[in-house]
Design goal:
Blueprint: H1 2-11, H2 13-28, H3 36-55, H4 57-62, H5 72-87, H6 92-119, H7 125-146, E1 166-168, E2 183-185, E3 189-191, H8 193-209, H9 213-223, H10 225-230, H11 235-261, E4 263-265, H12 274-283, H13 293-318, H14 323-340
Antiparallel strand pairs: 1-4, 2-3
Length: 347
């Protein structure tokens, strides 16, 4: 009994409840006519789609900048990479690699300016990050209409200028990662090997970074900025580096998302992209000042599993589409819980 109590204390009661709830949904799936292999496959695809977006939260949390509610800025960098790659006529693996390269350049530039801004508002980073994310999306909504794109795949047909709201990546790099070494069992199960491998690879690179001297300095700044400054660490520089990393990961993350989703969503599409990532890492057990890769993996699996299974089960039982309601409850409810609790971060 004592061991169970210790496990619950270490793992976190909310995560224990969510885990058992998710297991119950998987067990109930065959009983209500929902295909279990298809549900597991959908959950795995969602994990591959969204994992890097959750990883993007780690650098800023570790540096003391808090949750990156301005992730939309990184998403915009990724959208620029995607649209410019298509504009230049690249397709396939080359097109995807070019999109990543362009997104990382824009992500570094945007992240540098974003980091400089956050250094001027220490203590209010998450509030300002939200403003940055929302305002950047609105500014780009104008930019998408006036930027000189010419590709007939992307521009509005009736005016000959301005980008469409939704752009298909079919024929360019749709499922370029999902189909790489994919494992298929029957007609309903597919393991997206490529997307999962990229997620794990990026996670390993993040782990390696935080075990290098530079990454240790970033963590030291987040743990105790005064001590880090006394040790000769340039606090502002470390914070900027973390923000640049987060923004660049956001750019990469949205490209991985798009290749799986099949479409590029412009204008207000990126507006709320940060909230699922924030909710996932908080569900995983992270706090506003401490996050690990374990939190990322657990949170992504739980969050995406719930978003996949709950609507499917509820739809099968009640014959009503509950997907939007469930997404709002999970995202906003868990964010509210995590931002108002005072307990220590889960191990």
């Amino acid at each position: 009994m004592e061991g169970i109590k210790r496990f619950i204390a270490d793992f976190g009661l909310p995560r224990v409840i969510i885990t058992f709830y998710l297991l119950a949904l998987f067990l109930a799936a065959p009983l209500v006519g929902v295909s279990l292999p298809a549900s597991i496959s959908d959950s795995l695809i969602r994990i591959g789609m969204n994992g890097i977006m959750v990883l993007a939260m780690v650098p800023m949390i570790q540096s003391g900048c808090g949750l990156n509610f301005g992730l939309s800025l990184g998403v915009i960098a990724g959208l620029l990479g995607a649209t410019l790659s298509i504009e230049f006529g690249f397709a396939g693996v080359l097109g995807f690699v070019v999109a990543i390269g362009i997104s990382q350049v824009f992500g570094a530039v945007f992240g540098y300016g974003y980091g400089k801004l956050l250094n001027r508002v220490k203590g209010g980073e998450m509030m300002i990050a939200t403003y940055v994310g929302f305002s950047s999306v609105m500014i780009m909504s104008i930019a998408w209409l006036i930027m000189p794109y010419k590709s007939p795949t992307m521009i509005w047909g009736f005016g000959g200028e301005g980008l469409r709201t939704t752009i298909s990546v079919e024929g360019f790099w749709r499922h370029i990662l999902d189909d790489f070494l994919a494992v298929r069992i029957g007609d309903s199960f597919k393991f997206p090997t490529g997307a999962i491998l990229v997620f794990v690879l990026v996670a390993v690179l993040i782990w390696v970074f935080f075990h290098l001297k530079l990454g240790t300095a970033v963590t030291a700044v987040g743990s105790n900025a005064t001590y880090a400054r006394a040790s000769g660490i340039n606090v502002n520089r470390m914070r900027i580096i973390s923000v640049m990393m987060s923004t660049m990961l956001g750019g990469l993350g949205i490209l991985v998302f798009e290749q799986s989703f099949g479409f590029i969503q412009l204008y207000e599409g990126p507006l709320y992209m940060a909230f699922p990532a924030v909710a996932a890492i908080l569900i995983g057990g992270a706090s506003v000042n401490k996050a690990t890769l374990v939190h990322v993996f657990i949170g992504t699996a739980l969050y995406q599993g719930i978003l996949t299974m709950t609507p499917a089960i509820f739809n099968a039982v009640l014959k009503v589409d509950m997907s939007d309601v469930i997404r709002i409850i999970v995202s906003n409810g868990m964010i509210l819980y995590a931002l108002t609790r005072k307990t220590k971060v889960a191990k």
